[in-house]
Amino acid sequence: MKILMLTPYLPYPLVSGGQIRTYNLLKNLAAKHKITLASFIRNEEEKKYIKELEPYCQKVIVFKRRQAFSPINILLSALTPFPFLVCIYFDIGVRREIQRELQRENYDLIHAETFYVMPNIPATKIPIYLVEQVIEYLVYQRFVESLPRWAFLAKPFLLLDVAKIKFWERYYWKRAKRLAAMSGEDRHFIQKLEPDRQVDVIANGVDIEYFAKTKKQKPQKPTVLFVGQFKWLPNRDATKFLVEDIWPKIKEKIPSARLWIVGRNPPKDILNFASRNIQVDGEVEDIRFAYGASEVLLAPIRNGRGTKYKILEAMATKTPIVGTRLAIEGINIKNNHEALVASSAQDLANQTVRVLKNPKLGEQLAESAFVLVKSQYDWKKISNELDRVYKEVGTN
């Protein structure tokens, strides 16, 4: 089948959850389909990564995206019905180039990764399969609702933008022939708003073979790990919640405990958390080392439906998990079996202390989680499910 895949990022290097997802799907689908990848890049330097994707694509096309806070984007979001997120990616030139590509080649399917790239797809009879990695308007809505009181002057404008996101997200749900969500919860949410939409669950996966090679070594001090990409706002909130509310309670019970925060693009306020017993690393050369040198992954996510890669990676590396219900949402984890689930700062601290003081409990949780991730979340299985859907949705 001949497929045009449109993504808001170049799926290499493997930094963000979206990049990891798209790269692994391309890698596993390349033998079954002829895929043209059309991706947005932020700067010319990214072109050096095209060669990493060429083995899995018939062709790679890139479009240079405007800077997010460019005057054009700000003006468009103020004077048009489009939200700021759509304005960042919408480009008449890109739309024309995609139109020419659709005229040149006989595509069976257009795979759109995220709704906000869809304004660049011209009117066409080719079926569109829209993949929603998150429900975007919910992420932004929760962010605006969590703003401090002093930001009250900005809230009305931000809430207007959230309303725009919701309108256009639903609009493009209806334009697509079929949708994909990351979890059953997201599918239910979409169908509650748009009951006539057919929504598949194409979950996120993990490279089991790669992460299972992680070498476990007991750290000198009891070590709690937090992993998160800090461009995603809920990770910033979770880190502050961890350091300010949860960590002092853990230290009361285990004074020698150490917290290791790992994640790209940490802002200054996150970097400032570094202290004698808190280590903050913007990135590590091999994330498996961080999992191998930690006794528990703590994921105190309070808002936003993310990609859950840190949870899947922890499962594949046999690292015990403590987290909120939202952190594990969409993964078939049972509380007290594959992970310990809690909500309040006190409960999250207590459950983390349980794992640190009881290595056998940690081993039991980790082994059960590994069995689950291996049986249900391997990229090969996820790709086979997407391949099945492609055959149902495509024209040939």
Write down the CATH topology of the largest domain: Rossmann fold
User: What's the CATH class label of the largest domain?
Assistant: Alpha Beta
Strand runs, count: 13
Kindly report how far apart the N and C termini lie.
Answer: 7 Å
Extract low-pLDDT stretches: none
CATH architecture level-2 label of the largest domain:
3-Layer(aba) Sandwich
* H/E series: EHEHEHHHEEHHEHEHEHEHEHEHEHEHHH
Helix percent reads: 40-55%
Approximate shape: globular
Radius of gyration: 21 Å
Topology (SSEs and partners):
Layout: E1 2-7, H1 17-29, E2 34-41, H2 50-53, E3 59-64, H3 71-79, H4 84-89, H5 92-104, E4 109-113, E5 128-132, H6 136-145, H7 155-175, E6 178-181, H8 184-193, E7 199-201, H9 208-211, E8 223-227, H10 233-253, E9 258-262, H11 268-271, E10 278-281, H12 287-292, E11 296-299, H13 309-316, E12 321-323, H14 325-328, E13 340-341, H15 345-357, H16 359-376, H17 379-393
Parallel strand pairs: 1-2, 1-4, 2-3, 4-5, 5-6, 6-7, 8-9, 8-11, 9-10, 11-12, 12-13
Structural descriptors:
single chain; 396 residues; alpha/beta; Rossmann fold; 2 domains; six-stranded parallel β-sheet; 17 helices; 45% helix; globular
